[in-house]
């Protein structure tokens, strides 16, 4: 229990931050839910619920420490930790929700404000059998071409997805490696065989002849997955090595923050102390001259000391505009490998693996059906499987090709013809839930906004090529782990909450229609 004097000083410091300091609404929101745990010597330990909140708080650390010191009458420092038991910064107040409870209606849980006409309707034939209540059949469906579900829970409380709702594990805080992205979960096919062989070789002999390893290819083809897989493999073979995964956006933010807080040297030491640096989506550094300069020095330092560097990009080094020749030529020092779009057999195998991981039994003809329709982007392919299995689970039906055909009827990838942007998704989502775009991107953790925001993030992940940090950036500068959390949360809810499934279906259709009409 925190001492009364300390608790009172903390409260006064928060008030002063609000009244005297130019802290924005996001910062204030975070301060208000920050929990003081106690003091060790002159350091006040604070707990927040996410990396996003921690970073936010740390940017105001100096000011906070000055005010706290004045309030306590003695020099104070702060140390911020993440406590996942706290309500998350996204207001997700059921982080440890047991799978089974998600199948019951919580009476005082209004959730987001859904449009009155929206997806609680009973679909017209030939949509699958519904478990809707009689009253819901009186409503009209806004999207008769899309299968929708009644808001009542399925009669059979055995949601396949709900049973494995806790399967997804968090990203490692130190290495930033996603435990789901390993070589064992990566399907090898003609399109990625060479890249996988090179990745394996680099992982087995870090700093060897494939240094740097440069992996390039189109969106959603598995570059990030391979990058993480290298990290895991290095650590499993050499647990003593230091591995770090970083997206280009994170590298940029880290660099900018380090300069702003006068900690440039600490930044350099942190990045130069690693044995394997995995840098994702290097193309996002284009045009950021100072960050590229810093990356250039990081690269040189690491290469000189024999550390392995692996870089991914959406294009080969030669075509990377915005980088000086000296940087591009370094990218070509080692080995460059590309990943091509997966062929049909590989796509089927990926779906098979995904279904196995999710512990959902899906017959081969259904997997073939889905794989035939989604050929350019594995992320979309996976999203399609999630939708089909979620719908089958919610409506207690077997997963058949007919059902898949209905669910995916309007969900064909048409990215070549239309451009779906984060702004479009935000605008459609805000309109649909009757909230403002500002609120959607704000720090507010109200339940209704949280779910609407998570749905918008899920749709950004599925319908755009944006990276996780880029999506976080569109939603008030949130951390990429918040986007991963939102993605997992919504994928789970789609299988257990008909209204969420319907929101996703309806919004996808509205977003695609809006993109086509532009
Ligand atoms: N060969 C594969 N085997 C298993 N899963 C795969 C494979 N290729 C891609 N995936 C899955 O597809 C999804 C998208 O892959 P990933 O994020 O690695 O793509 P990317 O090439 O990095 O895309 P972007 O350039 O948009 O960041 C991930 O969930 C990943 O696990």
Question: What can you see in these coordinates?
Answer:
- There is one protein chain.
- Strand 6, helix 10 (289-304) and strand 7 form a beta-alpha-beta unit.
- The protein folds into three domains: 4-105, 2-Layer Sandwich (GMP Synthetase, Chain A, domain 3); 115-173 and 343-518, Chromosomal Replication Initiator Protein Dnaa, Chain: A; 192-339, P-loop containing nucleotide triphosphate hydrolases (Rossmann fold).
- It has 518 residues and is an alpha/beta fold.
- A five-stranded parallel beta sheet has the order 5-6-7-4-8, with helices on both faces.
- It has helices at residues 4-19, 25-33, 51-59, 61-72, 160-163, 193-204, 223-237, 248-260, 264-272, 289-304, 325-331, 344-357, 364-373, 378-394, 401-407, 422-433, 437-441, 447-463, 468-474, 480-496, 498-516; strands at residues 35-40, 43-48, 77-82, 213-217, 243-247, 276-280, 308-313, 335-339.
- It starts with a helix and ends with a helix.
- The chain binds adenosine-5'-triphosphate.
- Adenosine-5'-triphosphate binds at residues 181, 185-187, 192, 219-225, 281, 314, 350, 353, 378-379, 382, 465, 467.
- Residues 176-392 are annotated as: Domain III, AAA+ region.
- Oligomerizes as a right-handed, spiral filament on DNA at oriC.
Descriptive tags:
518 residues; alpha/beta; GMP Synthetase, Chain A, domain 3; Chromosomal Replication Initiator Protein Dnaa, Chain: A; Rossmann fold; five-stranded parallel β-sheet; three-stranded mixed β-sheet; 21 helices; 8 strands; binds adenosine-5'-triphosphate; lipid-binding; ATP binding; cytoplasm; Chromosomal replication initiator protein DnaA
